[in-house]
Input
Amino acid sequence: METNLPTLLRTYRKGMGWTQEEMAQRWSYSYETISAWERGKRRPSNQEIPRLAKLLEISPEELASAIVSNQGQVLPLTDSTLQPQRTQASWKTNFEVWGEVQHIYRNRTEFSREFSYSDMFENAHSILAAGISLNAITLNYSREILQKLIIENQCNIQLCFLDPDGKKCAEREEEEDYPLGTLAGLTRANIIITTVLYNQIKQTSPEHCKHLEVRVYDLAPRLNIYIVDDILMTVQSYGYGRGEEAPVFVLKRKTQGGLFDFYASTAKHILTHSRDINEQDPSEK
Output
């Protein structure tokens, strides 16, 4: 016997012991949307099917069947006759895109409590990071382990810090309502930490210092991104206001042109518009 969407949602929600408000909060939907779905007044769009199916722990096909089933009557998905093969292909593509999302943490505190950068960086061959002060690398990660990654694994590490002396850093401090110089001071200290690491490697193993790039950029900081081996990523949107309250996504590349590629292109744009502070000025050569 087919289950319609309202029954499916209510059964799942009650099995989890949630109210409609709790489900809406956990799933990042409005209370009005959850309520309307459960009352059969609205239904998810085709684009929402992959994500909602993952939340309900069922296949997109099962969810689609529940959506079009309304007490035994099939509802049209479009104003015209729907071509099944085309619709299934659309669901599959959307599911692959949303399937790249491995986890969503509601804020940076929850993320820091439950996620391990040590595990993410272990045995990495490349790390690209772009943000403001990059504390995950500079403050929360051992310099000895980073040095081991660079020298023994020959891991290429590119760190793009917001330029503490640039215009955009001062603008960000104003957005976050920090006293002037707060973010600049923290970022400058973190740059010094990584520069010391660079100089240590240059002295002990100069052939490997090329694997560490300490860079700065002066663009409006809107994302904090760490990419490992161009496969695994954490990304947090800064938005306007304190970045600590923004959700953090963990993404794993599964398809071309998906969410991973979208955010990776942003990180690479920052990289392109940054400068390596350890490069010698041509005029000094």
